[in-house]
Amino acid sequence: MNNIQQINKLSIQQFKNEIANIKMQSDLQSRLDQAEKSHTAKFRDFSDLDMIVWYIHKRNHLNIEHERTQKTIKEYERELTMFVHQLVTFSNEIDLDIDNFVDNSLFKSLQPRHIRRYQEWLATRSPYVKQMGSYSAATLARKATIVKSFLVFLFESNYISEMLHTGFYNISVRTDDRPNRDFSPLEVIKLLDSYKEIGHVVMFSIVHILSTTGLRNEEFCRLNVGDLQVDYVTGSYYLNVLGKGNKRRQIPLRDKVLTSIKQYRKVRCLKPLDEANLNEALFTTGRGTRFSVSYFTQYVANEINKLDLPMFVARNTNITPHFFRHAFAIISKINGADVYNIMRSLGHAKIDTTMIYLDKIFEKERHAIHSWKPELMKNYI
């Protein structure tokens, strides 16, 4: 039985469970150590599944905080699982014309043309496209980046002899291809006023906190009471946030935002901050449990949809917590903040990411009409 048939016997969930088995890492490390000791090829006895597990879970840094986050690991698990599952399940549609399997390995048997055909199939004929419509350019680029990096790893590790990653087409993500998540100060104020008017303390607090801190969804959900700390020099409070890439940053809190945090905990019947366990969640669901990222996103979108406000209905998309991260960047820029300070405040690793948030603001600021002199159009400008 060849590799593709063996994989086909596994359900997608079984295969995913195998990839997520971090306990395999220590066993794989032992096998690599033994190969090194006996001066044999490092990955000679590894299977395709072993290579995926090793790629996702292998340690690169002495300090574990510098390793991939659990969110990144889960994303890699999902995308690589789906990549293999689709190659196996839709091999005929993709036209994987493989006559002979090399060492019972799917990866060793592939050639660049198969990767090209897979990418074309994914973008034009895959089940998702047939049911939901085309993937966005950004989504296709993200998927390609993950799979391509894995294929590069296989080649550089001498597990495969073909440069499979060269089969990928380049994907350019234009500004117009990106979803419009710009959120203005007026929209933030409209939400705050609306929730204040109807007495929805929880949503008022969420909008207030997110738009004034620039927190990521997962950062908000992960916050503990102990992450709310006081600067004993100034007497002001700040959030000690563990961000993307396990990098920490300190986010100052205005007094009114601190009040919103306290009000949130009060209506959720949580202990006051000075009485709460430092390791308990700072924000919880109505049931008193910690938010998951997916539930938090869904909750915020549903509550905003309930308002049925024309200015948000016209957007024809759900307003998720991530919109308020964009709002923080835009409001900061309007108030004269330096782009590099905005970048650091958001926890971005690259200025390019911050510029995506502010692209439309810069476009408007640099418009030629701002150079017009009033006397040229008299009373009409």
Structural class: mainly alpha
The percent range for helix content is: 40-55%
- Our estimate of the beta-strand percent is under 5%
CATH topology-level name of the largest domain: hpI Integrase, Chain A
Task: Report the mean per-residue pLDDT as an integer.
Answer: 87
* CATH second-level architecture of the largest domain: Orthogonal Bundle
State the major sheet. Answer: 3 strands, antiparallel
Describe the oligomeric state of these chains in a short phrase.
Answer: single chain
Q: How many DSSP helices?
A: 19
* CATH classification, class level of the largest domain: Mainly Alpha
Number of E-state strands: 3
Spell the H/E element sequence. Answer: HHHHHHHHHHHHHEEEHHHHHH
What is the straight-line distance between the termini? 77 Å
Biggest sheet: strand arrangement: 1-2-3
Q: What is the CATH superfamily classification of the largest domain?
A: Intergrase catalytic core
Radius of gyration: 25 Å
What is the total domain count? 2
Structure description:
By secondary structure, this protein is mainly alpha-helical. The chain has 2 domains: 3-176, no CATH class; 185-365, Intergrase catalytic core (hpI Integrase, Chain A, Orthogonal Bundle), CATH 1.10.443. It has 19 helices and 3 strands. It has helices at residues 3-9, 12-19, 24-37, 48-57, 70-89, 91-94, 106-109, 112-124, 127-132, 137-156, 185-198, 201-213, 217-222, 255-267, 293-307, 310-313, 322-334, 339-346, 351-365; strands at 228-230, 237-242, 248-252. Strands 1-2-3 form a 3-stranded antiparallel sheet, with no helix packed on it. Helix 3 (24-37) packs across helix 4 (48-57) and helix 17 runs antiparallel to helix 18 (339-346). It is globular. The mean pLDDT is 87.
